[in-house]
Amino acid sequence: MDAINGIDAATASQPPAQNGVEGVGSSGYKLKFCTVCASNQNRSMEAHLQLSKAKYPVISFGTGSLVRLPGPSITQPNVYQFNKTSYDSMWKELKEKDEDLYTRNGLLKMIDRNRGVKWGPERWQDWQIGIPRLEHATDRGSEGIEGGVADIVFTCEERCWDAVIDDLHNRGTPLNKPVHVINVDIKDNHEEASIGGQGILDLANSLNKAAQEEREAVGAMSFDTGSAAGRASFDERVPDIIGEWQGRWPNLPATWTLAWF
Amino acid sequence: MAAPGQLSVPDQIRQLEGARKLVLGDVSYYPQVIQATLPIIGPAAQVEFRRWGADFLSEAFATPAVTLSQKETLSLLVLETLMLLVQDPKQDPMVLRSVIQTAASIYPLAIRWTSADTRPNTRINNPYDTAAWDHMSAIKSRILRLWDTSPVTVRICCVKFAQRVVLAQMPSVNTEPRKNDPLDISLALIPSSHSALDKHSLEAEASGLLDRMLGVLQDSSSEVLIVDATLNALSVLIRARPAASNRILNAIFSFNPFKLASAPLTPKTKVIVRSMEKTTRMLLAHLARRDPRNPHAPRIQQYLERLMASKAEVLDGASRKRAHGDSASGIEVKRQRIGHAQPTFQISPLGAGPHSLADVFALTQNAGLRTFDVSQVPASLAAKISVNTIARIDTSILDRAIEGVRDRLAYLHEAARQAPSPETTALDVEEDDDYEPYEPAYGPAENDEQILNKLDSEPSSQSREQQRPAVLSSLGLPTFKLPPPQPLNPNQVIKVGQGTVARVFGIMSSLGDPANRRAKVGMNRLAASSSDRDAWITIIARLATRSSAGLNEVSLKDEDDSSPVGGMHLGNSIRESLYTYVLEDFRKRIDVAVSWLSEEWYNDKVQQKSASDAGSTPLHYEKWALRLLDSFLPYLHAQDKVLTRFLSEIPEINAALLSRVKTLCRDPSMITLALTSLLYLVIMRPPVREIALDTMQNIWLEYEEARPSAARHLAKWRPAFLEAQKQLSEGSGQMDMSATAAAVST
């Protein structure tokens, strides 16, 4: 953990990325995000990092049954348990196994990045939604999401979106809390993950801006008399925002629904 | 806390956040913190505090970190505040949202707590209970009114609240409710004789609320947030409340998520249509997966298929419709399509990224067709359709389709040749989880054995994998191994062997005789180096003589009995065939006989040499030479030169063979032929001269008619014999006479 903390501190001291971070100051309202991919290694972690650099509260998960990383051949993947293996130990193990191979395919670089973000991959299905996450204080993006609930879930692949929705059906919506689940289809390689992470950050910025605007519209809305529709709420603007965003990112097809925790 | 006005709003919120952190760390502080904050967040507070407070309460009653009974106690503290907040006609929508969410969490607790409280004494001693239920009821009726009038963002929370009411006021599927599951609080908890809660009216209310919830699916509502929020809240009702499930499913089955699709598709409507379609599909897929044997499963399946079809129609059809204009008549449309079918047939090249095998061969853009699982069509029907289609298809279209697929494969090979970059190497390792039962996965269709085969045949599998296009490696075209055939039994071996030999004879017959004999190449000639008849003869002869030489000795010996009971030896069966082949036309095929017998003779010699015990080696030459000779002798006529040739060319001659020649002389017309042949041997083959002359002598002795001719040859080669015979005959003449005399005398 010392090593992780060291890296964490080192990366945390870097200035936040400049791409598209618009006005997310330390005081403004921030949506809470959650990023999800299959193994909580590449796409969700890239997006986790980018969102946390932009100072958003963010957590991340994988929907697979196991953490699977490419191995020496297509039939010999490196397989790890969720929630039980740290990125640090994976990094050390793969470096030991074949440093040349895992440098060439970028795995070591990716896991090195991940161990600077949080301890290890977490499985979506094992996530106890609504249980406080105070023990994750050293994770990047942990500030603001201590309550263990997110406003927006970004999945990085259609079947992860499906897995998330299916899991929410299974849980039976006990928390009564609405959540926007948005899939942004990203191919599983380092280059696409980086582009996809930027796309997700751009979408997060647009969504957060709308949420801030809703917050700032303080004051009575006399909807109760039926006279004024008032300005559209954040929730209502989500499909619009996604539609506009899709125009900016035509190569990241999106799917969205409003679900319940 | 007493003087909040002294601090700025953000500072106070920060203080409140500090209190919140405290309870997140230890939920046992909730009662104190809630009690301390209620005055700050009450109905008269600034909107920032009300928002924070309502949020805080919704979190407190949602978190699984607090037990149900703790929440029950807490709920008594907050119900009045919640009621006042929700009843404020000018309440901030965000405060309303959080309050309604909190109410949804508390409602089942209030039901449980009120229904459990049946002892008359407690009720009398605790009048606050009634007040709490009254507050809850007031909150409920307010929320149900807000459901009609408030903004969508609030209404979705009203839907969720209604869902919790329905859940609590309908009988559960579980007869034994689980105590700590808030979702299992149901009508079953309420005794029928409860003074405050009337079971029947509660159930009726739930039923009415359910209808109201489902109304959004039946109206042509385009309010996607409400539709999604409703659909995503239904699963637990369908599963756990049997009284509701039928009604809900019927509502879903009559719901058309594509009703917006007729409008011009803006980016927003695209998002909305897709959202409603996928949300509906996911709910039904979830139900089908969770309980595949549920009685609704076939209807769910049907609906899902219909959904896929209309999705394809909407997404593809929209552009096609536009292309065809507004021609209403179906016939016209059909005619147009025939007219335009060819020019519009396009095979789009593959885009970037990984492709499945299906992608490579998929020529249609129609998403419904692409996901159609062809393997469900019975093989016989598929064959019929394929044959019909192939029979009718326009050749140019077929050519273009083949060309298109070929281009795609070429493209994949080209793409694979480019060096893999770590930035674009796929990281998604194929998973075994089964999240998508309704979307066919085109994973590697290999079994373990094939993969092992592949690994066996690819020692450097890693570099090979990288060179091959991803789609081709996922195709898995490994070495295909036929299962080993059943071992043949000896009879089958013989039969098949004979078949092969018969085929070779067929070839020889068709080749016929070489028109003119080529010049002999002498010692350098290689057997069977050309594919003419001679070559085949050599092959056949050697097959007969050498292939099994040294094997099956015992059976070969038995062969002499010509009673092949246990199956004939292959070599002998070939010999039979050769024998028959020669005899069919022995005059022309005598050369075949000679080369065959030469091979036999050679083989006999080699066998004798190598065999330790010479006696045990089966010998074939003499046997077959005799058989051949015996067989064609009866057909010879006086002018045939074939006998002379045969005798002069076969490698070895013995007395037995020549004794057969001798028998020719039984026919006086053949005497000259027999003697000429023998004379030729006497002159041309000195090693056999003596036995040839012996045979001639025997002819002289045995056949009266042959004596004059034989005597002519013998006079030259065996004058001593004739001399001796002359004396003998004179002596025997006397003896004859004396014998006759003796006979007469006796």
TrEMBL record, chain A:
Name this protein carries in UniProt: RNA polymerase II subunit A C-terminal domain phosphatase SSU72
Q: What does this protein do?
A: Component of the cleavage and polyadenylation factor (CPF) complex, which plays a key role in polyadenylation-dependent pre-mRNA 3'-end formation and cooperates with cleavage factors including the CFIA complex and NAB4/CFIB. SSU72 is required for 3'-end formation of snoRNAs.
Q: How does it assemble?
A: Component of the cleavage and polyadenylation factor (CPF) complex.
Q: Where is the protein found, in the record's own terms?
A: Nucleus
Catalyzed reactions per annotation = O-phospho-L-threonyl-[protein] + H2O = L-threonyl-[protein] + phosphate; O-phospho-L-seryl-[protein] + H2O = L-seryl-[protein] + phosphate
Reply yes or no: does the keyword Nuclease apply: no
Domain of life (superkingdom): Eukaryota
- Region called Disordered, residue ranges: 1-21
Tell me the Pfam families matching this sequence.
Ssu72
What the record says about family reads: Belongs to the SSU72 phosphatase family.
At the highest ranks, the source species' classification is: Eukaryota, Fungi, Dikarya, Ascomycota, Pezizomycotina
Q: Which UniProt keywords apply?
A: Hydrolase, mRNA processing, Nucleus, Protein phosphatase
Name the EC number(s). Answer: 3.1.3.16
Where is the secretion signal located? none
Q: Which PANTHER family match?
A: RNA POLYMERASE II SUBUNIT A C-TERMINAL DOMAIN PHOSPHATASE (PTHR20383)
Decide whether keyword tRNA-binding is in the record: no
Automatic annotation (TrEMBL), chain B:
A Pfam family of this chain: SYMPK_PTA1_N
Q: Which residues form the Symplekin/Pta1 N-terminal domain?
A: 92-321
Q: Positions of the region Disordered?
A: 416-447
Q: Which InterPro entries is this protein grouped with? A: ARM-like, Symplekin/Pta1, Symplekin/Pta1_N
Query: Acidic residues: which segments have biased composition?
Result: 428-437
Q: Where in the cell is it found?
A: Nucleus
Q: Write out the entry's keywords from A to Z.
A: mRNA processing, Nucleus
Mind telling me which PANTHER family this protein's record contains?
A: SYMPLEKIN (PTHR15245:SF20), SYMPLEKIN-RELATED (PTHR15245)
Q: What name does the UniProt record give this protein?
A: Symplekin/Pta1 N-terminal domain-containing protein
Q: What is the organism field in this record?
A: Apiospora saccharicola
